[in-house]
Amino acid sequence: GLFVTDYFTRTPRKLSPFRSFASIELFHFHIPEDTVIAVWNLITFKEQGGTFGDQCPDRSITVYFRSGAPSVINPLHTHFPRDTAVPGSFALTLTWTLPNRTTGVFNVTSPLPGDWFLAAHLPKDEGKISVKGLYEECQYLFQPQLIVQRLVNIAVLYPGFVTEQSMGPHNRSCLYKVFVPSYTSRVLVEVLRCRGAEGCPLWLRVRAKAPPLHNSTALDCRDHTPCQLALDLPFWQHWYYVLVEKHPGVPGTISFQVIVQLTDCSQPSLARPPFLPSSASMNMPHSFGSMGGLALGDSPPPASPNGTKHPVPNPTSSPASERCWPVRPTLRNELDTFSVHFYIFFGPNVSVPPDRPAVFVINLLPVLDSGGVLNLELRLNVSSLCGENVTVFGCLNHEVPLTSSDNASVTCETESLAGFLLSVNATATLSRLRIPYPQTGSWYLSLRSLCATEHGFEPCTNVTAEVYLRAYLSPCINDCGIYGQCKLLRTNNYLYAACECKAGWNGWGCTDNAEAFSYGFQLLSTLLLCLSNVMFVPPVAIAVRSHYLLEAAVYIFTMFFSTFYHACDQPGIVVFCIMDYDVLQFCDFLGSLMSVWVTVIAMARLQPVVKQASAVLYLLGAMLLSMALQMDRHGLWNLLGPSLFALGIMAIAWTARTIRRRHCYPPTWKRWAFYLCPGALIAAAAVLLYAFVETEENYFYIHSIWHLLIAGSVGFLLPPRAKPSGRLGPLPRRKGCGYQLCVNEQEELGLVDPAVASINSICTS
C-alpha cells in the first residue's frame, strides 16, 4: 500500500519533581486512523543559567503513555480511594547518555487512533525550600516528537458482499476494513475459494480500531474448513481491520474471496441486508474510505480494484447470538467544567424486570470529558424486593453493552471486553464506582436482577427490583477531601483536574494517611509559627523606650500580620484567617522587609541637618518595597536590594563620622562587643537558616527559629536613645600632665553625636 508520514512536535517544557498529578507535565497528541506505526522521539536536555547544564546531576525521567485519556499514575505507591478503578498505562524511564542531553524512542505498532497522552516527571525530591534567585537552578526540559506512518486507500469490505483478491508472489498480505454500526452482536469474517496452493496457506487476523498485530484474534485457514472467524459483541461505531496474510515460504499466486457478515442483534435471525434505505439505519459514516466515498443508501459499486462483488445469502446467526435490548439514553446537564450530571428519563429510580436487563448509555464528549472523574452510584430500594433474596448486578462497559445470559458466573468480562461490575442486595444496598480520567465515547450500563439460590444465581420470578441510579462527572474524587485542593490544570487547549494534597496526606483523592500529620502536630506547628512572633515584643519595648516610635509601629505591624498570616497558611485543619490569604501574605512580607529597612536607617544616626532625609527614606522604602513585592514576592533581590541600599547609607554615615572625628565609629568596644557583633551574627544565622536549611518537613520549627533570631537581632542592633540637641553645662574637670582634660563621656560611649553637644572649655596649663 501507499504510506504517508506525518510529523508532530511539542514545545519543550520544564519538568518538576513528582508530588501529585498536578506537578506532572502532560502532552496531548492525536494519531490519525489507519496508522501502522507511531514513533515517539523523547528529547531531554539540561539547562543552568541559560546554558547547557553539564554540571547538573543526572535525574531519571519517567514518561507514561495512554490512549484515550491521561494516565492514572501512582509512582509513590499510595492508596487509592475506595471504589476507584485504576486504568492501566505504559511507563518508560529515560537514562542519560550524554552529560547534558539524552534521547529515548518509543515505538507503537498499529496504535489505536485518536487521542494519546504523555505524562512526564522527575523523581520526588527532599522538598527543600530555596530562595528564588539565590543560585542558578538546574532545569530539566522535555520535548516529545511524534512520527506516524499511515496507510492510504485501504480496501473497504461491505457487509454481505464478496471481495475477490489475488496475492502475487511478492505480496505477503492484504489489508481490509469494515465498519461495524450500533446494535451489532456478531461479526463473521470468512475466506472462500482459496486457490493457487495446497491447503489454503493463509492466516486470517481481525482487530478493532487499528490494523491487526501478531497477537490479535487469528485463524489458520489450513487447519479450519471453512475458514471463518467470528467475533461476538464487537465494538459499536468503529472500524474493524481484516488482515489476510500468507504463510512464509509459499510460492506462486494465491487467489481467494473475503466476505463479512454482520448480525443485527435487534433481529438475531437476520444478518445485515446488503442494501439499506438510508444511512441512519446503520449509523455509518458518510465517508466510506478508499472505495470512492460511498454514501449509504447508494448502491454499492459493481466492482472494485480487487475484483467483483455480489451479494450472498444471509446466513443464520449462531446460537451464541443474543437479542439486544433497547438502550435508554441519558440527558446531559452541564453545570460547570467537569461538572456534568447524566439524568435518566423517568428516573432516577429505575425498574429492573426479572426477564430482561435494563441498558443505559452515558456519552462522554471527546477530549472535553476525559480530564475528570466518572462517578456511578447504585442504591437498592429494599422494599421493592418483596422479601426475595434478589441481587442486582450492573456491568459498565465501554463502547458496547454486555448482557450475558450466563447466570452461573456473574462477570463483566469476555475474551475481548473488560468492564466494571457493581452489585447491590438487601445486605449491601449501596455500590459506588469511580473512574478517574475515563476514556471518552459511549459507556453502557447493563442492569439485571438475579435471585440467589443454593445452586447459584437464577432468574427471579415476578420480582421487579427498583434501583436509584446516579451518574455524574466531577473534577476530582470527593473534591479531594478536607486535606486537598482540586486544581483545574491546562496544557495547551486540553483541560484536566487533579488533587494537590497537604498536611502529609497523599493519594489520588488525598485519602492516604500513611504520612499524615496528626491534629496535635498541626496544632503544635501552628502555635510555634504564631507564638514565635511574640519575640518582637522586646524590640518594640526597646524602640518605645528609645523614642523610636516609627520603628516600634513597624515592628508591631510585622508581629501582627506575621502571626495571622502563619495562622492562615497552615496546610491542615488548624487554620484561622482574619483576611484574604493574599492580603495577609503581602502584609507579612512587607512588614518583614520594612523592619529591616527602618532598623538599618535608624542605625545610620543621620545628622540633624539631614533629619528630613530620614523621613524621605522611610516613605521611599515603603513605596519601593510595595512595588517590588507586587512584582515578585519570592525574589531574592526583594530582600537583598533594600537591605544593601540601607546598609550603604549606614556605611556612608558611619564613614563620614569616622573621618570627621578621626576615630572609629561607634568608638567604644563595648558597643561593638555586646551589641553590634552579636546582633550581626544572629541576623546572619537567621539568613543562613532561611536560605539553606529550611525544607518542607522542618519548616514549622526552622521558620519559627527564624522569627526568634530576626526579632532578637533587632533588639541588639537598634541604637540607643539619642540625646536632645543643645549645649551641655560645664563638665567635671580633671587634671593630668599639667593640662585640664575636657571629657564628654556620653560621646565616648557612642551615645550622642559630637556635633549635637558642643563643648567650649578653656584649658590652661
Automatic annotation (TrEMBL):
Gene giving rise to this polypeptide: Tmem8b
Membrane topology listed for this record: Multi-pass membrane protein
Highest rank taxon of the organism: Eukaryota
InterPro entries reported for this sequence: EGF (IPR000742), NGX6/PGAP6/MYMK (IPR021910)
Region (Disordered): 291-323
Main location: membrane
Swiss-Prot/TrEMBL keywords: Cell membrane, Membrane, Transmembrane, Transmembrane helix
Name of protein: TMM8B protein
Source lineage: Eukaryota, Metazoa, Chordata, Craniata, Vertebrata
Domain named EGF-like: residues: 499-510
Subcellular location: Cell membrane
Family indicated by similarity: Belongs to the TMEM8 family.
Source organism: Pampusana beccarii (Western bronze ground-dove)
A single Gene Ontology CC term: plasma membrane
Membrane-spanning segments: 516-536, 548-567, 583-603, 615-631, 637-656, 672-693, 699-718
